[in-house]
Amino acid sequence: MYSLSVIVRTICDVFAWFLAVFGVYVIIHGHLTPGGGFQGGAVVATLFAFLLVAYGGKKFIPFYKSNLFSWFETVGLLLFIGTGLVGLGTTFFYNFLAGQGGLFGSTVPIGPNSGVLNSSGTIALMNMAVGVEVIGGLSLILYYMFKGIRLYEESGSEETGHDR
Amino acid sequence: MIGNLPYLVVGIIFLLGLYAVLFEKNLIKIAIGVSLIEASANLLLIVLGYRTGGSIPVFTLAGKVGKMVLPVPQALTLTAIVIGLATSALMLSLIMMLYKHYGTLDVREIRRLRG
Amino acid sequence: MSWHVHLPALVIAVPLLGAFIAPVASMLGKVARNFWLVGVSALTALLSVLLWQQVLTSGTAIYVMGAEAFNLSLPSGMSLPIRIILEVDAFSAFMAVVGSIAAFAGALFSTNYMERFSGLDKFAALYFLLTTGMLGMVLTGDLFNFFVFLEIASVASFGLVAFWRDRPEAIEASFKYMVVSTIGAMMILIAIAFLYGRYNAVSMAAVANALRLGYAEKIALVFLIIALAMKCGTVPMHMWTPDAYTEAPAGVTCLLIAVSQASLYGLFRVCFSIYGASLGSAVVPWTIIILGVLSMFIGVSMAVVQKEIKRLMAYHSVSQIGYMLLGLGVGLLALSDPQAMADYGFTAMKGGIYHLINYTMYKGLLFLTAGALYYAAGSRNLNDLGGLARTMPYTTFMFVIAAAAIAGLPPFNGFVSKLLIYESTFAVYPILSIMALVTSVLTLASFVKVFQTAFLGPAKAKLAQVKEVPPGMLLGMSVLTIVIIGLTLFPTWSLSNLVEPAAKALVNQAGYISAVIGGGL
Amino acid sequence: MKRQVLFLVALIIVVGTLWGGLSRIHQFGDPGAAPMDDYYLHNAQAERSANNIVTSIVFDYRGFDTLGEAAVLFTAVCSVLVVFRKGGHN
C-alpha cells in the first residue's frame, strides 16, 4: 500500500491526535457519559488505521511495535480479571471500591447531576483496563491483517501437520 | 400493527443475511451475510428496549428525568457487537488465507473436503 | 465462609487466567509453557472434581457474581435476579468433571504432539479459552452468559481448527465451521431476545418460572433447538463435524468432543429446565428422538465407507450423539407422566447421561490414538497403514479398549449405557431399539476394519522404522484409558454416584427454579 | 432464477411468521412492566455511584459477561495471530 496525497497526509497529521485524545476521553469518562472502554479503545485503534491508510505500509510499519501492543493487551486483560479476583473476599467481581471514599470512591448525588469523575469504584478501573486491552487487540488485528500474508510468505516453513 | 414496523425490519434483515449465506457464491458476500444476521440480532435487542419518548439512561447533565429506555438490552448489545466484531475479523482473516491457498473466492471451487 | 463457596467462579476463572498468562509464560521457554499447559489443566480438573463433590454433599451450588454475598440471589423486594448467577446442580457439575478430564488428557497429549510447530504460545492460550468456554457453558445459570461462553468456545475452536494453516483443508474446515456456528450463535441470541422481551429476565431460573408457552416462546424454542442441534452436530446440520474434527490437531479434537457435549447440555437444559413441564405436547420429544435416530443411522453408514481414520471416527461421533439424543428424548417424552417416567423414562435418561460420559471418554481416546498413528506413521490414510501392533504396543492396547467400548462389547462401559437405552426405548417403540442395535453392529464392523488394517497384518515396508510415540502422548491417552477401565469395573458405583444424581437434577425443574427464586413453581 | 423465486416465497412466509412472533413479544415502544430494568434505573446510581447506567450494568451487574466479551476479543486476536503467524521451527 502506498501513501496517499499530501492533502490526506496533512489532514491526518492534524486530526489523528484529536482522535487519540477523544478516544482516551471516552475511556476515562466511561462511567459518566455514553461510551466506555470498548468504544474508546476502538476510537484510539482507528488512529492506527488512519495512519496506515494515509502513509501507507512502507512508511508506517517500521514505526509499529507489535510487541508493545501484545503487552498492552495482556496487561489490560490481567488488570481486568485481577480487579475481579480482588473482589473474591466478598464475591468474584464485587465492586469493592464504590462508595468507600478512596480511589474512585466518591458518591454522586442521586438524579441528574454534572458528574463526579472520581466515582463508581471498579467500574472506572475496569473501563480503563478494557480500554487498554482493546487498543492493543484491535491494533494487533489491524497489523496482522495488513502484514499477515507477507509474513506468511516470508516464513518459508510448511506447517501441515504430521502427514505431509 | 404498523407500529410494529421495526420488528418487520429485523425479520427482513435476518432473512436477507440468511439468503446471502445460503445462495451467494462469493466468500466476502457470505461474510457480509453473517454480519447482516448479527446486525438483525442486535437491532432486535435494541428495539425491544425502546420506550416511546424515553431518554438515554445516563444521568450526567440530564435535563429533567422523565422516562428512560431500558438499559439492559443496550448492555447486552454492546457485548454482542464486540463478539460480532471479533468473529468478523477472524472470518476475513480466514478468507484471506483461503484466497492465498485456492486463488479464488468462489465457494464452488473451494471443496477439497467432501464425503 | 470457606473458600469452597467460590468454587463455581474459580472453575471458570482459573483457565481464563491461564489463557491470559499463557503468552507470558511461553516467553520463559518450552518447559515453562508445557508445565503451564498441563498444570493449569490439572488444577481445573481438580477444582471441578471438588465442585462436583460439594454439589453432591450440599445440593445445588449458587454463586451470584458481584453481590454482597455469594448466595444473595434476589435483592430486597425483587422477584427476579438482577445479577449473573452461576447455578451448578448435579448435572452441570457432572458435565464440568467430564469436560475438564478430557481437557486435561488433551493438554497432556499436546505437549509432545505439537512440539514440532510454531505458534505454541497462542495454542496454549486458545486451548485454555476453549476449556473456559466449555466450562462456562455448563456452569452458568444465565442465558446471555451461556451465549457469551458459547462464543468464546466457538471462536477459540475456529483458531485451533485452522492451526495447521498451511493445509488448505484446515482453513476450509475452519471457515465452514465458522459460518455454521456463527449463524447458530446468532439464532441463540435472537431466541434470548425473545425470552428477554417477554419476561424481562435473562436468568434461566427466572425465565423458567415465568414461562407460559405461547407463540413467541414457541419460535424461541425452535430457534434454540435448531441452533444447539447445529452446534452439537446432529444429522441435518452435521456437515461441519467431520471436517472440523478431522482437521483439528488430535489433542484439540478430544476437547472439541467435550465442547459439543456442552452444546448438548444446553439443548437439554433448555428442554428440561427452562421449558420442562410447559412443553405439553409430544412434538418436541419426538423431534429430538427422530433427530437422534437419523444421526445414529446416517452417521454410521457414512462412517463405514471412509478411508481416513479421523474422518471415520468423526462420522461415528455424529452417530454416537444420536444415542444421547435418543435416550434423553425418551426421557423428555415421559416427563409429564410419572408412571411412564418410573417405567422407562428415567432408565432412558440414565442411559443417555451415562452414554455421555462414556462417549466423551472413549471418543476422546480414539481421536488421541488416531493422532498417535499420524504422529508415528505419518499418514492419515487407512490403506497406507498396517502391522503397527508390533511396533506400537501401548497405542494398540488403548485403541482396542476404546474400540471395544464404542462398539458396546459386553464388559465395557459402552455396553452398559447402550443396554439401558435399548431396554427403555423398547418400551416406547421397539423399532427405535432395533435401529440402535443395528447402529451398534455397524460400529463394531467399522472398528474391526480399522483395527485389522492398521494394526494387524504384515508390516508395510515404509513403516519399518516406526517407533512408539513419546511418553507425554502415552500419558495423555492413559488418563482416558484409566477412566474407561474404572467405569467398566465399577458400573454400579458410577451409575448410582455419577449418573443418577445428574439425571435426577435434570428432571427436577422445580428444584432448579427454587434454588434461585425460592418457593418456585 | 427458479430458486430465487422459491426463496422469495419462503422469505415472505418466514418473515410473516417471524414478524408475528416478534409482534407478540410486546408492542414496539411499550415494554410494559420491566422489573429488572426498573431496578437498575432506580437503584444503580445509589448503589454503584455511576451516572451511566449502561456502564454500571456492563461492568458491574453483568461484569462477568464483559470479562467473557474481553476474552472473546483476546481469542479473536490469538486466532488471527495463529492464522498469520510467522512460521519457523521451535
Description:
- The complex is a heterotetramer of chains A (164), B (115), C (521) and D (90).
- Chain A has helices at residues 6-28, 37-60, 66-86, 122-155.
- Chain A is an all-alpha fold and 164 residues long.
- Chain A is flat and about 60 Å long.
- Chain B is mainly alpha-helical and 115 residues long.
- Chain B contains three helices and no strands.
- In chain B, helix 1 packs antiparallel against helix 2 (27-48) and helix 2 (27-48) packs antiparallel against helix 3.
- The longest helix of chain C has 40 residues, at 338-377.
- In chain C, helix 1 (7-26) runs antiparallel to helix 4.
- Chain C has 521 residues and is mostly helical.
- A two-stranded antiparallel sheet of chain C has the order 1-2.
- Chain C has 20 helices and two strands.
- Chain C folds into two domains: 1-279 and 490-521, no CATH class; 298-488, no CATH class.
- Chain C has helices at residues 7-26, 30-58, 90-113, 120-139, 143-161, 168-199, 204-210, 215-232, 240-247, 250-275, 283-303, 309-333, 338-377, 388-391, 393-407, 413-428, 430-455, 471-489, 491-507, 509-517; strands at 61-64, 85-88.
- Chain D has a domain at 32-83.
- Chain D has helices at residues 2-23, 35-48, 53-61, 63-83.
- In chain D, helix 3 (53-61) crosses helix 4 (63-83).
- Chain D is flat, with a radius of gyration of 23 Å.
- Chains in contact: A-B, A-C, A-D, B-C, B-D, C-D.
Terminal-residue CA separation of chain B: 48 Å
Residue share in helices of chain D? over 70%
Which class do the helix and strand fractions of chain B yield? mainly alpha
The low-confidence parts of chain D are none
Report a brief summary of the structure:
Chain B has 115 residues and is an all-alpha fold. Helix content of chain B is 63%, strand content 0%.
Q: What labels would you give this structure?
A:
heterotetramer; B: about 120 residues; mainly alpha; Helix Hairpins; about 65% helix; C: about 525 residues; 2 domains; two-stranded antiparallel ribbon; 20 helices; about 75% helix; about 0% strand
What secondary-structure arrangement, pairings included, does this model have?
The complex is a heterotetramer of chains A (164), B (115), C (521) and D (90).
Chain A: H1 6-28, H2 37-60, H3 66-86, H4 122-155
Helix pairs in contact in A: 1-2, 2-4, 3-4
Chain C: H1 7-26, H2 30-58, E1 61-64, E2 85-88, H3 90-113, H4 120-139, H5 143-161, H6 168-199, H7 204-210, H8 215-232, H9 240-247, H10 250-275, H11 283-303, H12 309-333, H13 338-377, H14 388-391, H15 393-407, H16 413-428, H17 430-455, H18 471-489, H19 491-507, H20 509-517
Helix pairs in contact in C: 1-2, 1-4, 2-3, 2-4, 3-4, 3-10, 3-13, 3-18, 3-19, 4-5, 4-10, 5-6, 5-10, 6-8, 6-9, 7-20, 8-10, 9-12, 10-12, 10-13, 11-12, 11-17, 12-13, 12-16, 12-17, 13-15, 13-16, 13-18, 13-19, 15-17, 15-18, 16-17
Chain D: H1 2-23, H2 35-48, H3 53-61, H4 63-83
Helix pairs in contact in D: 2-3, 3-4
